What does this fold into?
Amino acid sequence: MVKKELIKASLMEDKVLCENCDEARELYNISRFGEIKRKKLELSLIEAFYLMEKEKIVVLDGRNKPMSHESYMKKAKKREPNFWIRYSVFSDFRDRGYIIKTALKFGADFRVYDRGVKPGEDHAKWVVFPVSEGNTLTWHEFSAKNRVAHSTKKRLLLGIVDAEGDVVYYETRWIRP
It folds into this structure.
């Protein structure tokens, strides 16, 4: 069995830029990873780490040497302090067959599309807020998250991540008595 060549990518501050190749465009076209910008696939730090773990890409450092998972994680955590919690939710959804994208313009961490739906074909079904199991949310914070979901016509999911990286989801919504 011939091992497939990994897509080469470079870490650029808070994103990862893939080489201009058909395999990189295929990641976008089939699975909707990242965004195509100036004919290159641009990935978020979380998407790139997921693809590193799935052995689809190799991220090169400034000396053009492959980065280890540990060194990549260290750099990613410097850029995003909540990286591991967010990554746990992202990878859980991807492993379950959902497309999950950032939702910063909605005021949430992620938006999630129902299985079989690609961004652009229909709207996301949920907005997701990853939370560490040890953290607490005030009623004000919880209400704000619920308002974001309601105002964007999406369902609210709280992804509670435990110490092992396992995720439990709670869906909430407004109910009129």
In short: The domain at 7-79 is CATH 3.40.1170.20 (MutS, DNA mismatch repair protein, domain I). The chain has a mean pLDDT of 91.
